[in-house]
Write a structure and sequence with these properties.
By secondary structure, the protein is mostly helical. It has five helices and two strands, in the order αααββαα.
């Protein structure tokens, strides 16, 4: 039994189609869930309907470290009550960026082998 996801065994064209579909899903998710991106959609700086091919992605605005620092809470796509842990960048090149994590985020990081985020039994008792 292979642990390789089925999509990774597909043709390059099929993989590109899969990736494009996932990116479209992400844009729609952000349009609904993220206060920061909702503002961009309202201002017309971003539109899920404008992205119909790979070449359309260049029209989407980029997100800078300053955007993350100045609008951190507006990037959340979950209620603040779902946040169970915070981490941050080191700030080596300037002001650190705080990253809010849900229990699901921590579980995903744990599954990927990021041991710094392993949930211990003390933490688990709260959930």
């Amino acid at each position: 039994m292979s642990n390789i996801p089925e999509i990774e065994l597909q043709s390059p064209e099929r993989i590109r189609d899969f990736q494009f579909a996932k990116l479209k899903e992400l844009i729609l998710y952000l349009e609904v869930k993220s206060p920061y991106y909702k503002k961009l959609f309202i201002k017309g700086a971003m539109s899920s309907t404008r992205v119909s091919s790979w070449s359309d992605f260049h029209s989407l605005p980029t997100t800078s470290k300053d955007d993350l620092q100045q609008n951190n809470w507006d990037f959340l796509c979950v209620p603040k009550s779902d946040i169970v842990e915070y981490t941050s960048t080191s700030g080596t090149l300037g002001k650190p960026v705080t990253i809010a994590l849900t229990k699901k985020d921590i579980e995903r990081l744990k599954a990927k082998g990021v041991h710094e985020f392993q949930i211990d039994s003390e933490f688990d008792r709260w959930f």
